[in-house]
Design a protein that fits this description.
Length: 584
């Protein structure tokens, strides 16, 4: 097999590169060929398998269509054949396919008046069972998610269920485990009901498409999952639609699975995934660890982390996942109550669909940012897991979000000043609650607080916040802080800050990239010198600026990772596996 010859014959670009995945014994291998068509990819896949078979003997078989989402394919190979492929200079890695399983719950019946506690919780700021009011009310601007396509990559769905009205489908070509394309397990139907069911759903008007990658027993393969993601991305593009994907499944760390998810994210689709049910760090599981995914942990009705929920830096947000009622497959009116991060993920997927439907100009990166900036910060009690964010899903209007626990009012005097007027302007980023500041007058006996705003006070993203107060002559220090440690820019909005005294800029806050904090000094008085790069006029203007800088962009960077991780998978997890649906 000669890649140079193939380039000369026009089968692939001269710049095309290969990567493949597999392992010991009989494996499923992926060969990633970047920048080629599906037709060329199919041809090259056949050539690779033929080459490996002729080189090492034995039988090698390719199966399934080309996986364009990773530029790859799957094949059954012997250990020697896989090692032969791995020896090619143009092959970067071999990854073994994985298999996972799930379990179920108790059948119930759909109750037309029933509001699951999960829906009741995400529409209000205060939590706890005694605070729930038995209703689910959302802003009409969300249009209940109408116009958005939601792909449920799972065990399929039961499209005729009453919860889905005429919005559910189970396409025959979206079946990657054989058998009928409809759900024969129940898990996918339950998940779809939480995303968009008419009673149990967060976004009650979304289009629900079942992508079957797990069979009746709840098991499937890594290659099947990647094929499902590949199909969803292509179908979304073919329909020129705005789309979300829910993946309530997971397994051992897999670079190839992560790449598929990251590529779907780069295509403009919000991909929401379950963190997993092993009570371990989610960084050890895929697709939970994928950079492009919104990874969701599970909570109880008491606003605590579910005992089974994975945790850590890879988790982006928490949502209700314990004892969630939704649609089931016993009949078109069947329901079931089950638990898992599989149940938490579709709550977030539904809210993502709502945010997308509310504004046709809102990008997938905007949606991912809003999911976090509008979440209820500090709502979870007890052990949320080392490295986990204390963020609970909230479905409020992002233009009118307020903090659940108001912070003390800023400590500064009235602005009817006999001396000088100080004005602090802060352009917030996408996470305004992280930002605070203090202004101190430096004296021989120590610093004296002049004015301050605590972190969590500001609640509206990408907004100019203005505070004013009175100061007299003297030396001052202005300190701005960010609780997350990423300043006011640059991956999550672009903020900045300035401090004026009597209309003259005394502190110019660069571009907001100050990490956890930044302190700047200035002097006010007849001998003062300013830290401003432009210098201080000899005569200070008496007016205070009346216009604010224009608002900064709110979107996140859209670049996908430039390369796949090079570490090998660590194998399937012990205990409750999660590349099957992560729920239960």
């Amino acid at each position: 097999f000669n890649t140079r010859d193939l380039s000369k014959k026009g089968y692939l670009p001269a710049s095309a590169s290969f990567s493949a995945s597999g392992g010991d014994g009989k494996t499923t291998a992926y060969a990633a060929l970047q920048g080629v068509s599906a037709r060329t990819l199919d041809f090259l896949a056949d050539q690779l398998v033929t080459w490996a078979t002729q080189t090492e003997g034995g039988k090698g078989k390719r199966f399934g269509n080309a996986l364009k989402i990773i530029g790859g394919f799957a094949a059954q190979l012997t250990e020697q054949q896989a090692l032969a492929l791995a020896s090619l200079d143009s092959v970067s890695s071999i990854e073994e396919d994985g298999i996972v399983t799930i379990s179920g719950g108790e059948d119930e019946t759909v109750d037309e008046t029933d509001v699951p506690w999960g829906l009741d919780r995400i529409d209000q700021l205060e939590g706890g069972l005694d605070q729930l009011d038995g209703t689910y009310d959302i802003d009409t601007d969300f249009n209940e998610g109408a116009g958005i396509r939601a792909y449920i990559i799972d065990t399929g769905i039961r499209p005729t269920h009453s919860e889905f009205e005429d919005r559910g489908s189970a396409p025959s070509d979206a079946n990657f485990v054989g058998g009928e394309p409809v759900d024969c397990n129940g898990h996918g139907t339950h998940v779809a009901g939480t995303v968009g069911g008419k009673i149990y759903g967060v976004a009650k008007k979304v289009k629900l498409i079942g992508v079957k990658v797990l069979g009746c027993s709840g098991s499937g393969s890594t290659s099947g999952v990647i094929a499902g993601v590949n199909w969803a991305v292509s179908d979304c593009a073919d329909n020129n639609a705005r789309c979300v994907i829910n993946m309530s499944l997971g397994g051992g760390a897999s670079d190839t699975t992560d790449e598929a998810v990251d590529n779907a994210d780069a295509a403009g689709i919000v991909v929401v995934v379950a963190a997993g049910n092993s009570n371990r760090d989610a960084a050890g599981y895929s697709p939970a660890r994928a950079a492009g995914a919104v990874t969701v942990g599970s909570t109880t009705s008491s606003d605590t982390r579910s005992s089974f929920s994975n945790f850590g830096d890879s988790v982006d947000i928490f949502a209700p996942g314990s004892s969630i009622k939704s649609a089931w497959i016993g009949s078109d009116n069947d329901a079931n109550t089950i638990s898992g991060t599989s149940m938490a993920s579709p709550h977030v997927c539904g809210v993502a669909a709502l945010l997308m439907a509310a504004d046709e100009d809102r990008t997938s990166n905007d949606v991912k940012s809003l999911l976090k900036s509008t979440a209820i910060e500090g709502a979870l009690e007890g052990d949320i897991g080392n490295g986990s964010p204390n963020l609970l899903l909230y479905v409020g209007n992002p233009d009118a979000t307020v903090a659940p626990t108001p912070s003390p009012p800023p400590t500064f005097p009235p602005t009817a000043c006999s001396e000088r007027v100080v004005r602090v302007e802060i352009q917030t980023d996408n996470y305004p609650r992280e930002t605070g500041f203090k202004l101190e007058k430096m004296k021989s006996g120590g610093a004296e607080m002049v004015m301050s705003v605590e972190e969590t006070t500001y609640t509206t993203p990408s907004t100019m916040e203005v505070e004013t107060g009175c100061i007299d002559d003297g030396e001052y220090e202005f300190t701005i802080t960010d609780s997350w440690g990423d300043g006011l820019c640059c991956g999550y909005g672009e903020g900045f800050y300035n401090v004026y005294v009597d209309g003259v800029i005394e502190v110019e806050g660069s571009n907001g990239s100050f990490g956890s904090s930044e302190t700047k000094s200035f002097e006010v008085g007849s001998t003062s010198t300013t830290t401003s790069p432009t210098g201080t006029p000899s005569t200070s203007p008496t007016g205070i600026p009346t216009t604010n800088p224009s608002s900064m962009p709110t979107g996140n960077p859209t670049d996908s990772p430039s390369e796949m991780p090079t570490t090998s998978p660590s194998g399937m997890p012990t205990g409750i596996p999660t590349t099957s649906p992560s729920g239960m």
